[in-house]
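Sample entry (287 residues):
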Amino acid sequence: MLQDLSFGTLDNQYRHHLPAEDDLAVCVRGNEILLHRDTQGILHLPTVAQAQSWCTDWPQWLDEPFRYVFTLQDRRFFLWFGAAGDCPDETYSYIATAVLREPASKDLCFGLMTAWHLYCWYRDNRFCGRCGTPTAHDSKERMMRCPNCGNMIFPRIAPAAIIALTHGDKLMLSKYANRNYTRYGLLAGFIEIGETAEEAVAREVMEEVGLPVKNIRYYKSQPWGIAGNLSVGYFCDLDGDNDTVTLDENELASAEWFPRDGIPAEDDGISLTREMIRLFAEGNEPK
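Predicted structure, serialized as tokens:
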């Protein structure tokens, strides 16, 4: 999956590092990140030195334009909080975050998803939600602190259930409604306040396709920073013999049963969803 790095590790402990010229810079413009794609199709980030020469202005609310986020495979990543204008180097361009599913650049995509998650959190917590005072970064840990009321704001992670609903040798696959992503996937939904992950599985299946479930069993989890999620994968079985779908058309464009030998989706090595689909197709899903 995306977080299974080809070598090295992710060290995500916060440290107050100052950037060096050869560190990597994550420059954001709207929902796009500044990247270079080489002749083999591999994605690359600019260095801090390049970003400093291209982007010279940053907001007055920041004491420094770069913020250290983590070290991935011995390379330090910094978020650039300045004005990310047009890049004079034509080999670089701003690319939509949807690109962060490319197997050829899987390691970098994982880092960029995580950096994007943190960028959105920093962007959205410039002010205290309790009293409205501008916040300041804590010196020891990744936390925004309000100097007025003492409110402590930590990165937000939204848990979401990924659900492989099975009925004998059939698997339920669905497509989202009103989304740019149109490929087949599994049923999914956010875990709500006051419910367990298993309760969320049963609720989401009933809401989206109108079917009861049993034998809910945990498989694996995956950080999915592009949406600020922690995806939690579950397999479950249809409870009963009536497999007629009642589709929630506000959420889904389609939901269909597919036989084990006719699954129209392959494992891309990126998402928990695709790995779970592959396990079922191979007959290796947890019983």
